[in-house]
Every structure is written in structure tokens, then in C-alpha cells.
């Protein structure tokens, strides 16, 4: 039930930007992207990325970096931003924190327990206090649910919001589900013969 509410809530937060993107072009569309990336509670961007006026930015030499930045917020991480910072617009503090929140979500795909040292290095944070503040902010934003284990110096993830699916990722998911289904059928078959 909470996943349905979260999805609906995420959609509602993005809705004003989707509506505005229908008429925004060029520089106005760039400003719309900046606003969406800084907006509290907006953490999904794939629908905005697919809007025709936003998609046009990838063919505009002057504004292509903002389209790339929006794509990075949809599918990428802070590490990706750092690696391409010279070709991307500079982020405001709120945008930077949001990208770091999304990066924690991506890191949690690999492990539900993330050591502080890993987070400090990956997110380029100078000390544990700032890291814990960032994690607490992510928890309050409902990006993650978890516990700070200060004794073991790790973040224990219980739940994360879903990230936008990268192009081609749905095909990978379908392959995994198909393989799982076939395996399940085989197990049932061998249990009953």
C-alpha cells in the first residue's frame, strides 16, 4: 500500500513540471529543469525527460547539457556527475543533496548495509556528521528508510524509493522474471513427480 501511495505522491509532485513542459521551449525549458531538480520531494524525472520539448534540448547545442543533467538525475549517480562535471552545469546545494540521496538509493541496490566509509568516499563528504545529516534528510524525504548504526559505522537500509528505469532495463527485468518463473515451474514439477 505504501508503494502505491509513494508512486502516486511522486507523480503528483512532478505533475506541475510535466504540464509546464508542454509549452516551455529553449531557455524556459532549461529553467523548468533547474526548478524540477531543486524542487522538494521531486525524485523521479523520466516522464519529464520524455516530454517532447524537453527531448528537443538534446539537439540544441546551447542547452544539451541540461538534458544530460536531467538524464543523470533520472538514472545516474553523484559519481557519474563528478566524472562529467566539466561538461555539465554546476549544481546548487539542494540539487547536489538530491543527487546524493538518489546515489544512496543506487548504492543500496548492491547491498542493504552500506559502510560509512563507502558513503563518505562515494559521495565526497568530508566527515561523518555531514554524512549523517544527509542520510537523515533522505529519510525525512522518504527516499530511504533505514537506521544509522553509529557503533558499526554503517547505514542499514530497510526500504528505498524506486529509481527511474534506464532504457533497456525493463527488458533485463523481464528476463530475470521469466527465468524465475521457469525455475519455479521446474521446482513444482519435480516436487510432484
TrEMBL record:
Keywords of the record: Signalosome
PROSITE patterns: PCI
TM stretches of this protein: none
GO cellular component, one term: COP9 signalosome
Highest taxon above the source species: Eukaryota
InterPro entries: COPS7/eIF3m, PCI_dom
Ranges of residues in domain PCI: 1-162
PANTHER family xref list: COP9 SIGNALOSOME COMPLEX SUBUNIT 7 (PTHR15350:SF5), COP9 SIGNALOSOME COMPLEX SUBUNIT 7/DENDRITIC CELL PROTEIN GA17 (PTHR15350)
Family: Belongs to the CSN7/EIF3M family. CSN7 subfamily.
Protein name as it appears in the record: PCI domain-containing protein
Annotated organism of origin: Glomus cerebriforme
Amino acid at each position: 500500500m505504501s508503494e502505491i501511495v509513494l508512486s502516486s505522491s511522486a507523480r503528483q509532485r512532478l505533475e506541475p513540471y510535466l504540464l509546464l513542459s508542454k509549452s516551455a521551449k529553449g531557455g524556459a525549458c532549461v529553467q523548468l529543469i533547474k526548478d524540477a531538480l531543486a524542487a522538494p520531494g521531486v525524485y523521479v524525472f523520466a516522464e519529464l525527460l520524455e516530454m517532447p520539448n524537453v527531448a528537443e534540448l538534446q539537439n540544441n547545442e546551447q542547452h544539451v547539457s541540461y538534458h544530460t543533467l536531467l538524464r543523470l538525475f533520472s538514472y545516474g549517480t553523484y559519481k557519474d556527475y563528478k566524472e562529467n562535471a566539466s561538461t555539465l552545469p554546476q549544481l546548487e546545494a539542494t540539487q547536489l543533496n538530491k543527487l546524493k540521496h538518489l546515489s544512496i538509493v543506487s548504492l543500496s541496490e548492491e547491498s542493504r548495509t552500506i559502510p560509512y566509509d563507502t558513503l563518505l568516499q562515494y559521495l565526497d563528504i568530508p566527515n561523518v556528521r555531514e554524512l549523517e545529516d544527509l542520510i537523515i534528510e533522505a529519510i525525512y524525504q522518504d527516499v530511504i528508510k533505514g537506521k544509522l548504526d553509529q557503533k558499526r559505522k554503517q547505514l542499514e537500509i530497510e526500504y528505498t524509493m524506486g529509481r527511474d528505469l534506464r532504457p533497456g532495463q525493463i527488458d533485463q527485468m523481464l528476463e530475470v522474471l521469466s527465468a524465475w518463473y521457469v525455475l519455479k515451474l521446474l521446482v513444482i514439477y519435480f516436487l510432484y513427480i
